[in-house]
Amino acid sequence: xxxxxxxxxxxxxxxCTCQNGVSATGGPATCEVDECAKDPCGMGQKCEDPNxxxxxxxxxxxxCDNDASITQIDGPATxxxxxxxxxxxxxxxxxxxxxx
Length: 100
Description:
This protein is mostly beta strands. 0% of the residues lie in helices and 17% in strands.
């Protein structure tokens, strides 16, 4: 809070400033934080932050572009799984996962 003129005749000229730089004069500022602004989900995913209030953290949701039923709260969703990573075919065989 910043009150530039601290006299009894100077009322409602104080400024409230949020940590993200948003400010308001004469009352509290609306301090919103969009957790999706820093692109926490990554490529191939959509981010949604349902509550942007500064007190609500870690509630953003990542949804896969290729399958909207795959989601993750507070982090990237696992949209693709390489089924060949565990080498299921065995020795001298090549694994191919077309949907990886």
